């Protein structure tokens, strides 16, 4: 799973804000409600005089064909993250149609690309909700785009179920003004705080068996790793793990030799990492140099099912957190979905695909259950629902909890979603490699193997 | 005197090109009305919003053109002023509860001060030093924003401040902010045209053509350049500040501070007609609307398996390059020359026919050659 390993215009990553102490960025959001009392005081006559155009149908329940608006990053087949969102939403719609549609209506999908640009994301969101009057929206890969459309989601009052962006800032906005932002939900991944929490849980459950008694934490210097860093700094030692060192390195790092020298000198058993952009450079150099420590953590590129061939096997013995693998039976829906996607697209999906597919299916189930397409009815239904998706049990935190409408993280996987961990292992015949689930135990198809050179 | 003023303000006594300009401005102002005839329902509203955003990009381009287009001192980082105006205004409003109008005013002042701080030392140096300083300035500011992400929100930016005008509903919001943008667009256009068509503007143009000659005539080029730079920074800061108080934008690096913003503004101004103000405004608006329209093209590029919409920036850049090769003086100049030919009023260029782009390039060449050949 994980964060959005995305690149913005300026060449930097979109990331996530720390969820810890509220800063001015968060504090100021509380001021948003000051806008409401000002409403209706300005330029009404002007608008009325120019009112030859119809207003938007915000808040009205759509009728006729059931339309899903999808905001994805890019849709080219070489962009697995964006492509997985779009194709998975379409796959879900095809399956719903084959099963009679939703509330007796056919389901259609309208895909718009954001190119990871906030301004474009907002425009495309408005096209979907205003011009096309979709029932609800899903997708949105980058946090920067998501935060830029939060006010539009509030304004249009159509349910949005995020599939990609991990910033905790979005749910914080609900904490501060629930009524305004209640139409937003995050179906996945777990937010950036829980990404770190899951790393700690994994460490606590496995490190002693893996021989990772001491780790050196390496995180790329992008905003999304800040909540991860904070959790690791505060909780890793409590989990019985010796932290030999922590380093935030520049995201543009092209030579990891010095960094690996530091890890090696510290005597750590492993580099425990959080990497997106710099991940491939890091793993290739690690493999070439065959450093005497193991390697793994949140490594976004390693989540790609086709990654072995992309880096000529440099990912061998690396481990990473993920939503699912094509073979992992997280629920009875996981493998059938991955196979159906592979049949449709010719490749297996990445984590955003599982989430987008789940979002469409859960929304449809909520509409059926509420027997309504009214957004307020759907919000109530989603808040109380527990839905079995491909990524696990989909439930959302309530209004009074720390992260309202964020997907529930549950280490047991029974009352929420629980990321799985996989290791890339060489195939026995020496031809390529494959992802082997190693945790949680009920999903594990193998156990962790230490790299032979360690 | 009053007769002169009256005749200047009488559209019927203006040259044809200015009459056409006023007509275009009037058509722009009537966008909400004619858009209603062209598009049914909410589609028209979205186009009005697109044009609203385009006007802000036009304002950014005018801001750049008022200094770089006239003095030939290329600023590669004008986004720094948009960001200071936008972020400054947003933070004042969100953090301290300053009302939007006052926050916009203070944000503009902050941008002007930044213009002074960056411009005074840089502009007193010769050659492309201003370009180098302005190239680095937004990078430094972005690093500060990331380093102090608790205040500036890092790469995610900060949340939207209060809107400049309170509205109710998507349609009303669209109309109101269209006219907010239009009023600001007209005001900035008028101020910058007045300044650049004044004696001071002539000095600025002379600086671009031959700075040594200006100094030799007893004028202080640095003083004029500093004035233009601070004016430009103020205008850019004002546009950035108002922009973030509309529902069309947020105070985020990608909208106000990224290097691509600075570069797009330069492309827009050069494309429209460097050193004309009106051309920069047209270029900025064209850039914004053209990219927006490209993003809606669903055709797939053969062989790449990528839709045209995904390649909007690439296609825009290629089209821009082609236009620049074909029309190095910018589209506006080409239009004026073509128009004069059409009505038989062609006249020779007083400066020997060199465009501002060519003049500016010549200055840079001289610097890197180590001085003038003569």
UniProtKB/TrEMBL annotation, chain A:
InterPro entries linked: BCAA_transport, Leu-bd, Peripla_BP_I, TAT_signal
Pfam families recorded: Peripla_BP_6 (PF13458)
Region of interest (Disordered), ranges: 1-24, 423-454
Keyword Ribonucleoprotein: no
Record keywords, A-Z: Signal
Domain Leucine-binding protein as annotated: residue spans: 66-405
Biased composition, class Polar residues, residue ranges: 1-11
Annotated protein name in UniProt: ABC transporter substrate-binding protein
Organism of derivation: Salarchaeum japonicum
UniProtKB/TrEMBL annotation, chain B:
Keywords assigned by UniProt, alphabetized: Cell membrane, Membrane, Transmembrane, Transmembrane helix
Compartmental location: Cell membrane
Keyword Membrane in record: yes
Pfam family, one: BPD_transp_2
Keyword Cell membrane annotated: yes
Transmembrane segments: 20-39, 46-64, 76-94, 101-123, 129-147, 176-195, 226-244, 265-290, 313-332
Superkingdom assignment: Archaea
Source organism of this protein record: Salarchaeum japonicum
Membrane topology: Multi-pass membrane protein
Record GO terms (molecular function): branched-chain amino acid transmembrane transporter activity
Protein name as it appears in the record: Branched-chain amino acid ABC transporter permease
Annotated Gene Ontology cellular component terms: plasma membrane
